[in-house]
Amino acid sequence: MKLADIIHVSLQLLLRHKLLHFAAFATAAVVLAAALAAEFGGRQPETVALDVGLSALRLVLPLFIIFQVQELFSREFDRRFYQLSLTYPVSRTAWLLGRFFALLGVNIGLLLLIAAVLALQVGWIGMGEEQATPVSLGLPFWITIGAVGLDLLVLLCLACFLSIIASTPSFVLIGTLGFMLIARAYSAILALLATNAGVVGDAEAYRTNLGLLGYLLPDLGALDVRMIALYDRMAFLPADWPPLIASALLYAAGFLALGLWRFRRKQFA
Question: Per the UniProt record, which residue ranges are transmembrane (predicted)?
């Protein structure tokens, strides 16, 4: 069995587990959130719709990833389906990589689909109405979507790793969401403490302890570069964007490598 065959089988499994239903729900959730924000927001409707739409996108797709990983890995181990799938004439490395690439392709496709729908929606909202600071749906928008994709790649690799070492599917949900919240928030908290030290009692000690997370976690919060699309100004792009991209890719590769290493040594009862 070739790697392409494993990817094909994995896609069939995802379709069987209501992949299209969840994809439709994710798209509808982003579109609805953007529409309601534009309708009831107090700011410029295009900017509000794009801002809220991107926030919904960064919230819904990680849940989509967790759902898929649980179906392709955790539940298969839990239901002992591996007793059949691992008897295929293929190495464990190829089996895991096949499922990973299937998940990666599905998520990239869904990300691009929702991004295109969101861009069309925002463009339609802004028809016939000039804003003082128009949004950009060109290169800055797609750079923002690329950064979201990099964020999702890290979470996908982490979820795959957790599904291999976890004993229950719920651990994948808790571990991935917990990692996501911390990795996305700690840099923003550090920036807040740097400008407003009165938020907590001992701001310096708090900032020092949080700063240690920078050596352990990727800065996923810095990958949220939506400002360049909201205000059409590339100046909002972080000056250290090459190290940010390299760091995220290294963490993704590290999680995937750990998953492969652990899966090759995993003992099944």
Answer: 53-73, 94-119, 139-164, 171-194, 241-261
